[in-house]
Amino acid sequence: MTIDKSLTRKISGAYQSTHSQLVRFFRNRLGNSNDADDLSQDVFTLWLNRKAEDPVKESRAYLFKIASNVLIDHWRRNQQQNQSATSIDDVAHEHSFEQTAADPSEILEHQQRITQLSEAIDLLPPRRREAFLLYRFDGLSQSEIAERMEISISMVEKHIAAALVHCKKYLEDQGNNK
């Protein structure tokens, strides 16, 4: 599988030039370094997952627009969590109801997408896969991953960004092969 080199260079360049600015943007507004790191990563994830066909001309401006939206969503989530003290049983009941009301074709499509994502993750180099899984599925911060893997935070960021690019490209290729 080949990844578009120009896309990789563009994302890598934007990541290297803008990531620390995004972290500062979030840290100044949240006062929390871990959330700032996580939300900054989410900005790049959203950029990679965008559906638009038009190329982004001003990546820095576009990333900060996404960052503003991510920050608003973060504040809304926190506000909702503080307002509603929903029990686990209520959530489990809602989830089971949603599953029974879903269209079987949607469920199948969702399961196929999960299978494809799992395949994409399995194709990652071992260290990149480890960093990605620790971040996305174990919920560790980038600094915790760096400490656990005994690498720099910058290397963790590169592993995660490269893993996201790989997974997006793999899923796009699988969608084109249908």
UniProtKB/TrEMBL annotation:
Organism whose genome encodes this protein: Providencia rustigianii DSM 4541
GO terms for biological process, alphabetical: DNA-templated transcription initiation
Residue span(s) of domain RNA polymerase sigma factor 70 region 4 type: 116-167
Molecular function as annotated in GO: DNA binding; sigma factor activity
Ranges of residues in domain RNA polymerase sigma-70 region: 15-79
Keywords of this entry: Sigma factor, Transcription, Transcription regulation
A Pfam family this chain is assigned to: Sigma70_r4_2
Family per similarity comment: Belongs to the sigma-70 factor family. ECF subfamily.
Record-given protein name: Sigma-70 region 2
Entry-linked NCBIfam families: sigma70-ECF
The keyword Transcription belongs to this UniProt entry's keyword annotation: yes
Keyword match Transcription: yes
